[in-house]
Amino acid sequence: MRQLLHFALWIGLVAVFAAPLAATNPIALQLQLQQPEPPIVTRVAEPRVTPAPLVVQSPGTVEIEIKIKPTADTEELRITAESGNHYRSSTIWLTGAESQKVHTFEWHGFPAGEYEVVGELIASSGRREVVVRGALRVVE
Questions:
Q1: What are phi and psi of 96, to 5 degrees?
Q2: pTM confidence score
Q3: Which of 7, 67, 76, 112 could serve as a FRET partner for 120 with CA atoms 20 to 30 Å apart?
Q4: Cβ contacts of residue 22 below 8 Å, gap of 6+?
Q5: Cα dihedral 102→42→72→103 (10° resolution)
Q6: What is the DSSP letter of 42?
Q7: How much helix, strand and coil, in percent to the nearest 5, is found in the chain?
């Protein structure tokens, strides 16, 4: 069964993870991005609600759709999923503000475990412009 995890990385706006488990039972995790005070340069998403993780059957296939609002300095989009025993990462190189706004990743074969899923927009200086976090649970 294919599961969907949606990220929206909007600087200063709301990031939403949506995980339809069945057509009638979606789970949503909503995160609010905080505006930093200088000299902090990273906008880190903090949960507004206690979310339920996306749950998939092992070996899981997860499709991740990420919507971004890049800046002129945005160079990289990185998505990672990490548990105690498994790590998965994908990176897309961007072309600043003209970059495509929607990106899709499909990951196959997740072993059972609890994963932290992190989406990041990274500037050409290496500074993280936006960071959002979510959870993924893969069950036997």
A1: 70, -150
A2: 0.64
A3: 112
A4: none
A5: -10
A6: -
A7: 0, 65, 35
Angstrom distance (rounded) from CA 67 to CA 22: 22
d(CA 136, CA 53): 5
Question: Which tens digit of pLDDT belongs to each residue from 105-131?
Answer: 888 888 888 888 888 888 889 888 888
d(CA 94, CA 102): 12
- Which domains occur in the chain, in start order? 2-139 (2.60.40.10)
User: For the segment 18-65, what is each residue's pLDDT rounded down to a tens digit?
Assistant: 333 333 333 333 333 333 333 333 343 443 334 456 777 777 777 777
Question: By three-state DSSP, how is residue 64 classified?
Answer: strand
What is the distance between the terminal CA atoms of the chain, rounded to a whole angstrom?
13
Distance CA 99, CA 83 (A): 30
